[in-house]
Design brief:
mainly alpha; 283 residues; single chain
Length: 283
């Protein structure tokens, strides 16, 4: 991309903004050229620079930030002509390996759509995710380009509609399901050494958390046991604490068995689920 001055960049961004999504790639490329990511992607005052650029061009900073990020993740040479910018925005949440796989698919396979072009829904199918009924790009970009005050007013107005609230709730559930699907896919496709490393890290975190929890328990016992022994109302208050002691003893037995034999005496998930349900019932 040819170099341009700040003033030239502002003028071009204003011009592209009039064409809605058609100039998404160029807008992102301009923002990336004027405000590079930097070696560490963070400490290069990029937010301040991006904010000044967006304000000067009359654009929303979040919109310009996202377009810059898409341009960074997918430089020229990786962009498939038959795939619109919105498809690449969808790919931002995927891992680097998954993005590489999907770009290869878009280059070598037919999308199977009526238009013969790749769409967000077609790509999501290849990602083993449910297809979404997306907001038209022109509407999406208009909202993204609005000021914070305008977006707040729109949010407040839409929030009064029960159907909108339900749609938001369903969207949040879908996002959560998408995250779990991506995680399952990564685990299933990760090389065995990587999965073993993940298991080792998870086990190490378990050791750290359990040791910390027991340290806290021991410290609490040392602090409060003397006063507990002198409590004149101990008899009337002991039943709840006694039940907690029994639960802790059962949990400690489970930990000791795992440490000495490498096996739990019962299914660990079922055991913890029962402990938690008993605590919730008592609350």
């Amino acid at each position: 991309m040819k170099r341009m001055t700040f003033a030239q960049a502002v003028d071009r961004l204003r011009e592209l903004a009039q064409h809605e999504s058609q100039g998404a790639w160029e807008m992102g490329d301009i923002a990336l050229a004027l405000v590079p990511m930097g070696a560490d992607h963070t400490n290069n005052a990029s937010e301040e620079k991006l904010g000044i650029l967006a304000e000067s061009a009359g654009l929303g900073q979040e919109m310009l930030r996202q377009r810059r990020q898409v341009s960074y993740r997918f430089p020229e040479g990786t962009r498939v002509p038959s795939a619109p910018w919105s498809v690449y925005r969808e790919l931002l949440g995927a891992s680097a390996k998954e993005r590489e796989r999907l770009i290869k698919i878009m280059r070598t396979e037919e999308p199977g759509t009526k238009s013969g072009r790749w769409t967000v829904s077609a790509v999501r199918e290849r990602m083993n995710l449910e297809t979404l009924s997306r907001v038209p790009e022109v509407v999406s970009e208009a909202v993204r380009g609005a000021t914070t005050e305008e977006q707040g007013a729109l949010y407040q107005a839409l929030g009064q509609n029960p159907q909108v609230r339900e749609a938001v709730r369903q969207d949040e559930k879908q996002r959560e399901a998408d995250g779990k699907t991506r995680q399952s896919y990564r685990q299933a496709t990760s090389p065995e050494p990587l999965r073993q490393i993940g298991k080792r890290l998870q086990a190490l975190q378990g050791h750290i958390d359990l040791e910390h929890g027991m340290t806290v328990l021991l410290s609490t016992v040392r602090t409060h046991l003397p006063s507990l022994a002198q409590d004149p109302d101990l008899a009337t208050r002991s039943s709840g604490l006694m039940h907690q002691v029994q639960q802790c003893r059962a949990a400690l037995d489970q930990i000791e068995r795992v440490l000495t034999t490498g096996k739990a005496s019962v299914d660990a998930d079922d055991f913890l689920r029962r402990l938690l349900s008993e605590q919730e019932h008592e609350a």
